[in-house]
Design goal:
CATH class of the largest domain: Alpha Beta
Helix content: 40-55%
CATH superfamily of the largest domain: Aminoglycoside phosphotransferase (APH), C-terminal lobe
Strand content: 5-15%
Order of helices and strands: HEEEHEEEHHHHHEEEEHHHHHH
Strand order of the largest sheet: 1-2-3-5-4
Radius of gyration: 21 Å
Length: 354
Amino acid sequence: MNHQAVEQEELADLCHRALAEGKVAEVESISALTGGGESYVYRADVVFADGQRDSLVLRSCQRGLARARLELSALQHVVAHGFGAPTPISLVPAGPRGLPWLVLGYVEGRLLTDVMRDCSDQLERAPWLGRLGRHMAALHALPFEPLADAPDPPLVSKYPKALLLARLQTMREGFERFGQTELIAVVDWAQKRIEAADAMGPAIVHYDVHPNNVIVDGDDRLHLLDWSVVHVGDPRFDVAMACAILGAHGGAALASMLVAEYERCHGAQLQDLGVFEALVGATNLLRFLLAMPAEPLSDEARAALPQFARPRQRRRALSRYLPTVGYFHDLITRSSGIRVAAAEELLRRAGAGS
């Protein structure tokens, strides 16, 4: 996160507060971990009162206490069912910077991104994407009812499309808030397609599955990280998000392998996946359109995109992610036929060197 680092003393105090009083005898070291743009993430190596040593992950929850409680609830639920994810330890409602903080067990291993980078070719990478597809299918097979904010289970199970349409309305309202009329048109196009098709789920949706959010431990077991946007919904959002992120980084062929393995585990072909890819493409594209270098950021955009708050940060990030902008725009256009003028203008300016 692009903010001043949290003081070591505050983080050490957080460790003591997160566990039972007197359980942590000493915090030996604290180091920053690579985290998402919206969170502070640290590793703390601690010594317990009984002499045992362990490592913890300390992560801020920028989306507020209610969302942090949902994330804690989701982690408790999936880990109890044997799903690979960090072990939840505690939630501190008000920690450093006045934010809620989650304290999790540290998973020793390597990011799936790094594991795949070490593979010699696509043939060697393919099994890893197949395993990721199986991991998602296993998540979506878990019962969703225990989640803290789960809607009324009998009603949702009987009318799953209502939950999906409510999700589309939330997306539409977000695009309206930022005046993105063409992205609203993408939602309207998707809604017509979805109303005429069958719904899937409901299921626990992580909504940020990609190789940089997966740790491979010493036993080659996968652990899914960062549950900050978990919700109950249509599982195709998860598959579409994973495919979109893989495709944006040159892994479109690998994405097809992920889908094939997911469908094999699911036992049926995923219908209308392109509709969901267009929706997640629109959601991701919005982040870049809000940070267009030619436009000053509004206060609301600054709050939504702290990593783009300063002009130099914005120029550097946009320069790095312009190919991603192009990919998400192409994804929307291929699926829906809708062209997003603001994205085309951003790409034109970048191509002209302005």
